[in-house]
Records
---
Amino acid sequence: MNSNPKDKSSKNKSALSSWRLRIHEIIFEADTRMGKAFDIILIITILLSVIAVMLDSMPEVRRNYGSILLVLEWSFTILFTIEYVLRLITVGRPLKYAGSFYGIVDLLSIIPTYFSLLFPGTQMLVVIRILRVLRIFRVLKLAQYLGEAQMIKQALKASRRKITVFLVTVVTIVIIVGSMMYLIEGEESGFVSIPHSIYWAIVTLTTVGYGDITPITSLGRILSAIVMILGYAIIAVPTGIVTAEMTQTFTKKHVTTQACPQCSMEGHDVDAQFCKYCGSVLNHDSF
Amino acid sequence: MNSNPKDKSSKNKSALSSWRLRIHEIIFEADTRMGKAFDIILIITILLSVIAVMLDSMPEVRRNYGSILLVLEWSFTILFTIEYVLRLITVGRPLKYAGSFYGIVDLLSIIPTYFSLLFPGTQMLVVIRILRVLRIFRVLKLAQYLGEAQMIKQALKASRRKITVFLVTVVTIVIIVGSMMYLIEGEESGFVSIPHSIYWAIVTLTTVGYGDITPITSLGRILSAIVMILGYAIIAVPTGIVTAEMTQTFTKKHVTTQACPQCSMEGHDVDAQFCKYCGSVLNHDSF
Amino acid sequence: MNSNPKDKSSKNKSALSSWRLRIHEIIFEADTRMGKAFDIILIITILLSVIAVMLDSMPEVRRNYGSILLVLEWSFTILFTIEYVLRLITVGRPLKYAGSFYGIVDLLSIIPTYFSLLFPGTQMLVVIRILRVLRIFRVLKLAQYLGEAQMIKQALKASRRKITVFLVTVVTIVIIVGSMMYLIEGEESGFVSIPHSIYWAIVTLTTVGYGDITPITSLGRILSAIVMILGYAIIAVPTGIVTAEMTQTFTKKHVTTQACPQCSMEGHDVDAQFCKYCGSVLNHDSF
Amino acid sequence: MNSNPKDKSSKNKSALSSWRLRIHEIIFEADTRMGKAFDIILIITILLSVIAVMLDSMPEVRRNYGSILLVLEWSFTILFTIEYVLRLITVGRPLKYAGSFYGIVDLLSIIPTYFSLLFPGTQMLVVIRILRVLRIFRVLKLAQYLGEAQMIKQALKASRRKITVFLVTVVTIVIIVGSMMYLIEGEESGFVSIPHSIYWAIVTLTTVGYGDITPITSLGRILSAIVMILGYAIIAVPTGIVTAEMTQTFTKKHVTTQACPQCSMEGHDVDAQFCKYCGSVLNHDSF
């Protein structure tokens, strides 16, 4: 997921010829007009190619518009191939790019189509092809969404262990409840084995509730009612964890702990240069 | 959504004759006794007319009470037409009103009925007719709910980008998981195409769980169990974002909109007596 | 819901004879040993009587144990009647009690059984009988849960208007989406009228997802996917509102805004009598 | 759930021979390299044995691989037996360990297999066997997750009463709504008794929505729509409670457990240098 910051500084290297620099700026950056236009075109192309893959999987669409979709697929593949080659040429360290997360995603976006020439009809390629959708994040990364995504990531990272404790607890509950239901309900109502019952327990605890397996005995219904209320209530735990962490992450950005040297009042904003209570100059050295 | 504040000040214009002023105050404002009474009658009329549209769509009701509903529909339409005309006459800038969000909603509330005289049986008109329900918000807007709605809107606006990052992530997960399930499950269990599988993935991740398409293979059930737990846990993310933002918005309740008379900087706390950027005295008269 | 605090002070009135005072204390209060014992017995009796009503509604149980349940029902009714009469006798203002929320619930707990002598077989009485379960709250009210319940109530009250804005928005979405689905899907897939479609929209938006009505057209599925993601995301709004309000309510209890008269440090707890930084006496007059 | 801290100090006792000390450290602690390796092997063994129990419950797996699973089951049982005996020998107070939560879980992990020699085919033993999964928590307890789990537990403990008030309210709603639906819907649509209707009400309020029982009358659908919106909205209450509590717990991270040497009052902030109740100096050495 980590981009290659070295590559960015590489555009300053005199070793790069002027046109390579130009193209690098357009493809990898988003601060020029051309760069932004490229990003927008890229997003649209990615979305269109993903939609084409989806439509291609629909039997009735494939029957009627199969040839059009094939042409589209090849057009997108050629476009993405050109883009991939340009990225490889213009980047400072091609190998590092090729081995990075986005480098691999870029490659996986084009390979399946060429591969399908050799092994036609391999449905497995469809899923690899759809991984193109991950390229959307590259554009998001450049845009102003980066900071926001960072904040979310940071809060989730900080609550990583608490979430793990929560998930281990959920999995334990689900295994024990599943086994109990296997005993209580038996095979008539679909609880044919412990894994099946655990699947039911997950469907119930997460409040998804397909209804493909449902209890029919009184005892089974009482136990499942308890699981439902439990699932309904304990959703509060991950929400509480993430929210508490986010409140801290978001707040930490805005208020300093600094006191005014004149009136000792606190609660100044980070960008405050004068005390809002007495008007004297704040010194930010201590911050 | 934005109201026309100029119109409000227009009631002070001597150009407006006294009765127009009077009616404007009743229709557009809620601070007089007549204005409040008008609002209450309006809400009841809107709700009744929406219920009439709903009942009209029920075959058994239509068969038995069709003529009553037709009379009601025309009564409501005529009432709303009179109201619309009065609004047009009494408002300072009729064109601006007509082009505003509520102006268009007001017009769409009456047009379908007249239209049905020309093209009888156009079912499409039903949905346009039901848009009347949006007029409820006009009354809410005037009432004391305005501030509360503003706070919610502000918090959602502040978390706009974070929510976008979250939604893009959810859509990506759903597309990739959907494609994988299409491969794993195949057509027998309803996963007939990628779009169908994505529909299933959305139904599962959001914990809706219709049960119209459910996995039957072991691998499919394991993957769907992971999606369920994921969907159950990541609901914490938007909740955390909005809550953290709301906690800030509600607490910061006391940020004034006042600009510093010296440096024009904004965002001062209510209790601030000096500008935190340039240290000059703030005057709170305008607040 | 509001209790009658006057009644409590009534036990101090000399007008009440000593045994009435005694019984009043046992029945209405929970601070004596007898009072606590009475509360526990009351809770158990209420729960047993509610379970008896439930069992009585099960055809197979009724067939086999009908006579036992009848005896139990009459026993509970007589016990509750004695309790009701004792409450009426010992309370300071019997009429005020009889007209209060709990007075009415107490009466409704016993009336249906007597009523069933006159009009046998009235199933309507079952629901009235089950309202006994509300009496549980009377006991909770006296116990240490009062403060906690108050805090929840206070937070919900404070967020009353925001929740109203949210609910009006949800209802509007549901009406408009329902009407659109009625047009898109039509009668084959169960969307037979706008009210049916609105019912489906509520089932979907709230992520309940029965699956009794599900879209079958592509356009219908796309719209319902949008509704699901919307429902999944906007749950964040009421949660955010209530959480932000609760954070404020819970926090407000603990920290004063008072500064130490000696060292000007802030952040003292409400129960602090000495400054935690310099040890000088805090004066709480300003609080 | 409470571990036995006395046992830990027991390793310092000279009464323990050196090899017992060594093994105790490996089995009970996680700070040595051997101890960590033991923990990782233990987790893997527990997970494998749980998976073996699950697979054993699947008819098709049992038919084909039954003998392999039997061998595996006995291997795990013998391993766990050796571990259990070692724990008993090396621990300071064997009886206290045997009676503790984890002691009982350890015993329950091995007994069913021996028991199955005496009473073959007792399916009940499967569930006891699966309780092995609880042993996972013992390893978590030792690892760095302890603090995180403590924080979650503390927040849940602090909100214990508020959650109780919430659950009593939910159960009351569910009982009353269930009884009403029993009256409204009747037997045709599956609401055959009050307990069945309550089961439906829980399925609906918690937004699980199996769809095995669904309303078919108009009135029933209106009531269930209200229950759904209620269930959708009141999830905000437990979430709000837990989040508010967690925000406090995580922020207040820095409350010491130290008591004032003068007045014995507790609950001082980490940065407090004077007791806020009596003003005497706090000594932080014990912290």
---
Amino acid sequence: MNPQLNFIFSRRSIRKFTQREIPEILLTDLLEAAMAAPSAVAKDPWHFIVLRNRASLDQLATILPNGKMLSGAAAALVVCGDLNQAHDQELSFLLQDLSAAVENILLAANALGLGACWLGIHPREERIAAVAQQFSLPENILPMAGIALGWPAQESPARTRYNPDCVHLEGW
Amino acid sequence: MNPQLNFIFSRRSIRKFTQREIPEILLTDLLEAAMAAPSAVAKDPWHFIVLRNRASLDQLATILPNGKMLSGAAAALVVCGDLNQAHDQELSFLLQDLSAAVENILLAANALGLGACWLGIHPREERIAAVAQQFSLPENILPMAGIALGWPAQESPARTRYNPDCVHLEGW
């Protein structure tokens, strides 16, 4: 693994956090990183809900099956998309744009010493409905993913899951 | 913009390249970075076609409307997904997984001094069909995006497209 790319290899899903708060400036850093992602035809169809309120985090933890750690997280982001604003109103482009933004947030969090974990919402209908209700989302706003955030209370080594079977030279 | 996150802010879409070749080791670096992305339930449903052959690059340039620069690119990656291998065979998860991998490639390329540009394939049916034919893709393999690669012949300043209207505190 090229050490120049350690900012990628050292990003791991972090599910255990200390009780320490996250300064607001770092959350802004994460949002600046998110909105530096490319988006199809630069439509930037994303929206971000910032959660620091304990009751909100606890409620989201009950909605997302793999999101129990939100109860111990200092903050969370819910990454949403506006289908009306996406390139040609295509769900595929929306998901691609939002996912690039999520990956930027995860890598930025890691670079700042924070831990983060991507929590799936879309395409699970029951999660979408519950999240939309919790945050009073307008009808055109689709929640795609949650991101748990906090100072890591676990260490995971840098790695890649590189698999040569997934690499095809010049064609299949 | 926090300078610790410059590896994100300095990534810009690069569409003009020099004639210089890309050493194979750097392409491997990009693939290691790609496969360090998170994927839903760690299904890693991705496949990557590596293009260095001039005729292949030229042919792909004719297929992708925004991919004319492939004719001047030293290499390209075509990022594909196996719907059968995706979590619950859900297209949404597949697109999210592949997009995180694409963003890793773009950031890794930038960190290595390369230029890169994300070229949309999915959900455009005519592009999917033409790419599947060019590379003899099996029926379950869906091409999502191309990535043009080369040494940059243009400079673009670091930036974010941060928009405070896209940030919502605790709810909509």
